[in-house]
Amino acid sequence: MKMKIRMKLSALLFIAFIPIFCILIDLIMSVAQTSESAISFDVSFINQIIYFSVWTTLLTSIWGIASVLSYFRKPSNKIAWAESDNVATMVMTYQLIVFFVYTVTFIAYIDDIAGFDTWFKILKSILEHWILPVVIVTYYFLRERTSNLSWKEFLIKKAWINSIIPVFYIFFVGIRGFLILHFPNGETNNIPIFPYRQIDPTKYPVYIWLSGILSFIILPSFISTGLNFASIKAHNKLIVNQKWNKDFDLELRAKF
Description:
Layout: H1 5-32, H2 41-49, H3 52-71, H4 80-83, H5 85-108, H6 119-142, H7 151-157, H8 164-182, H9 206-255
Helix pairs in contact: 1-2, 1-3, 1-6, 3-5, 5-6, 5-9, 7-9, 8-9
């Protein structure tokens, strides 16, 4: 069953522009607010890029904008990577990780959760961590598919690609943390040295933070494999139901 045109376009526009709105409102309002918690633009920028959720949000927006542009192109001139099932699975994988990590952290550390101290941070957190993933999940499972790799083929040939960005992210926060710890020059404005407790070697023993890093790198491959498999199953079921409904309608018309 094809996703309705208006529904598809509305979902793509939401996916394209809500993520970048979330980043910009936090980036700008953290500087422009008149309270004592206002910070410089440089500090606000660093406070954004140290979180994987912001990396995911930025990637989602880029993919969404490319998908909107591709939507208005002729079939022969589509943007290939924007239409790719594998890229959609990658975005969906990261969004799912961000959703679960933030939700679990929110429940476990509700009195110490980052991003719930001002109205714009609350708005950003709700849109970025809860509403956006729901929209993307809905779109992901209703969109048409062109790839039908089995879970084994996907795991061997494609799944590893979903671990590339986490590797770069860990490298970035690791180098940043190392430099801050060993060359403590200037102020950090209370920005955490390591953005997530699970990968912080200054607070936890090696078996915890190393397990966190390895899980963060490896899990996307398995999560993406599961999502790809579930998407194919859902897509095939929709096609079967569509065919059954069409045959049923034709049979009724023949009788009456």
